[in-house]
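Justification of resources, computational component.

The compute hours requested in this renewal are based largely on the per-chain cost of generating structure records like the one below. Each record pairs the submitted sequence with a full structure-token output. That output is archived, and it is also reused by downstream analysis tasks.
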Amino acid sequence: MDAKTVLRFAIDKQVKFVDLRFTDLIGQWHHMTFPINQLTEDSFTDGFGFDASSLRGWAAINESDMLLIPDPNRCWVDPFFEETTLCMIVDIADPLTKEPYFLDPRNVARRAENYLQFTGIADVSLFGPEAEFFVLDNVRYQNDPHHTFYAIDSEEAHWNSGRESNNLGYRIRTKEGYVPVPPIDKLQDLRSEIALNLNEVGIEAECHHHEVASGGQCEIDFRFSTLLSTADNVLLFKYIVKNTCYAYGKAATFMPKPMFGDNGSGMHCHQSLWKANKPLFAGEEYAGLSKMALHYIGGLLKHAPALAAFVAPTTNSYKRLVPGYEAPVNLAYSRRNRSAAVRIPMYSTSPKAKRIEFRPPDPSCNPYLAFSAMLMAGLDGIQNQIDPGQPLDKDIYDLPAEELKNVPNLPGSLEESLKALENDTEFLLKGDVFTEGLISRWIDYKRKKEVDTIRMRPHPMEFAMYFDI
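The structure output for this chain reads:
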């Protein structure tokens, strides 16, 4: 689409407002709304001014003025607003130079796609994420210097089996929530409405089902696309999920681990490279892969500790990434084996369906940064022909200790991941895709605002363990 097409679309839909969506460094969507008469052809080059100084990880107060530049390729009518509102995703630009702002995550994704084409290795990178989430009926939490707690509840959760009133049974036992039919699955209609809302805003929902955990864990898969388009779709997906649930009187969370003792939420990322409309990951090697695909895997596994700082970027992420569960903390690859960090799906023999699945990411990540970092790691593997080693088709968690000690692990905490990133940045800096300034800003923010915040606060479990010491 171009500017004229967007403006005609707004007239046809009798739009009253335009809502501009943009992303902070951490990956949260923000928006500003303008009367539709303020959107003109010039807006697509001149942009709209805004103050960036209050956004997490962004500009200092002395360089706060920025521009929102609408992307005519990403627009839709919001299904939740009362007044007809055209939504558009924007890029952030410096008002003095009109150059892309170096901390805008969407511009990182653009540079990653440009760098891929510059290498000549491929012209398209396709990403297909599976962002799991929980749907809850009640959420309470509070953090004061003298008082802290959280409490969540779900109508379907096993802990409500003994409730005295309004109880018809049909609860989901711990780790037994994978694809049951109603009335055990109480979220069928909600997921269907989410899927319809996704289709309405241009995201093709392919499948939805209940996930493994009790307490409302769900998955809705949507069709893959290019790196930038898919990153846009992840944020729009989360918006649609949260607001559809909110309309039902429920709350959706993409926290990786909101509940102890049951499965957490991951965002497994399917990836492939294409050139001249031909798939490059299909071949005659292991699991029907090409040598290029194996080298791409080699890059992912080599740089996985540093990647973790972007793909599993919260302290909560490492409550999901715990040894001994299905979560892929061991850096290995395999066909079909879901305990490996990299899995090669074997559902189809078609070369077009050949792809790899990187399993450590979770939906707390900023998709623009996470997808870009994964692509850069894979390209580094191809450029340097990194050997991923032998596949591991055994159950990793049943391996004897002698054999398991040779399998490297992901970092065990966000702090360890940030240290790994500090020591392994060269692959990200190629083509100026990431900059040293962005990486240092990311590390500094995560350490001060997240790692230290959790590290310094007493935990309720510590009272249970140590109060009477």
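The chain is about 30% helix and 20% strand. The CA atoms of residues 426 and 434 lie 10 Å apart.
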